[in-house]
Design goal:
232 residues, alpha+beta, Transferase(Phosphotransferase), domain 1, 2 domains, 3-stranded antiparallel sheet, 20% strand, binds adenosine-5'-triphosphate, binds magnesium ion
C-alpha cells in the first residue's frame, strides 16, 4: 500500500483535505513517520518549505476523540456545528495555549500554524534523535529539571495558565533539556480550576519523589510563590 493510501484509510476526508491545504500552503510536505498515536490524536513529522523538520499533530475527527474532550472544555464549544466543529475548536484552544506559553518563554515547541484539527509546530529532536518522553528517558540533571519545571508551573500560573496534564508523559527529554508538550487540557487559572493546578504540582512532586529527589518544595510554598488568592 502506498503511503497516501495508508493515510486515506486512517483519516476522514475532511482531515485529508486539511492536510492537503497545509501542504498546498507550504507549511508541511508529505507526512513522514508517525511519532505518536493516542486515542485523540496522531503526531507525525514532516518538513516545511525550508526543509526544516516540523511536528504535525492531528486531532482525530471521530466520536471517541470527541468523548475524550474533557467535559469542561466541551461545554465551551458552540452547540451548533456538531463534534467536528468542537474538535476543531479544541485544537485551536490547544494552539492558543501553546502559543501563550511559548511567548512566556516556556521551553515548548514553537507554534507554527493551526488549521482546523491540525497543529504544526517545531519538531523536538532530529531525524536520528527524536526526543523521548521523560518517563522513558530519565537521563537528565534531576535537580536542574525540578527547578526548571516548578518555575514553569509558577510562571504560567502567575500569567493565569495551568497546563492541566503535566506529567513525565508530556515532558520530552531532548539532549538533557525538558520540553513541555500537549497543551490540550490547558486551563485558565480560577477558583474553579485551581484543583487542576494542584494536581499538576502533585504529579510533578510525585514523579521527582520517585526519582529520589530530596529537595521537593511543598505544595503550599509553590502556591505561595504564585501568590494566587481565591477572590470568591
Ligand atoms: N513537537 C513535538 N516534537 C517531537 N515529538 C512530539 C511533539 N509533539 C508530540 N510529540 C510526540 O507525540 C506524542 C503524542 O503527543 P501529545 O502528547 O501532544 O498527544 P496526545 O494525543 O495528547 O497523546 P496522549 O493521549 O498519549 O497524551 C508525544 O508523547 C511525543 O512523543
Ligand atoms: Mg500527551
Amino acid at each position: 500500500m502506498t503511503k497516501s493510501k495508508v493515510f486515506s484509510h486512517v483519516f476522514d476526508e475532511e482531515t485529508l483535505r486539511n492536510v492537503n491545504k497545509l501542504q498546498g500552503d507550504g507549511y508541511i510536505s508529505n507526512l513522514l513517520g508517525p511519532i505518536g498515536t493516542g486515542k485523540e490524536s496522531y503526531v507525525f513529522y514532516s518538513r516545511d518549505f525550508h526543509d526544516k523538520l516540523v511536528a504535525v499533530k492531528i486531532h482525530r475527527h471521530n466520536i471517541d476523540a470527541f468523548k475524550s474532550i474533557p467535559s469542561y472544555i466541551r461545554l465551551r464549544g458552540r452547540k451548533s456545528g456538531g463534534f467536528i466543529k468542537q474538535i476543531n475548536d479544541w485544537t485551536r484552544f490547544e494552539y492558543n495555549f501553546l502559543s501563550k506559553a511559548y511567548k512566556l518563554g516556556v521551553n515548548a515547541p514553537e507554534p507554527i500554524r493551526c488549521y482546523e484539527n491540525i497543529i504544526v509546530m517545531q519538531f523536538i529532536g532530529t531525524e536520528g534523535n527524536i526526543a523521548k518522553q521523560a518517563i522513558k528517558d530519565d537521563n537528565f540533571d534531576v535537580d536542574r529539571w525540578y527547578k526548571l519545571i516548578t518555575k514553569i508551573i509558577i510562571d504560567m500560573a502567575k500569567n493565569g495558565m495551568i497546563h492541566g496534564d503535566l506529567s513525565p508523559y508530556n515532558i520530552l527529554n531532548y539532549s538533557g533539556e525538558p520540553f513541555i508538550i500537549d497543551f490540550s487540557q490547558a486551563l485558565k487559572l480560577s477558583s474553579s480550576t485551581v484543583n487542576f493546578l494542584i494536581r499538576d504540582i502533585t504529579n510533578i512532586n510525585n514523579w521527582f519523589l520517585s526519582l529520589k529527589y530530596k529537595n521537593l518544595k511543598e505544595l503550599k510554598d509553590i502556591i505561595g510563590e504564585i501568590g494566587w488568592k481565591d477572590e470568591n
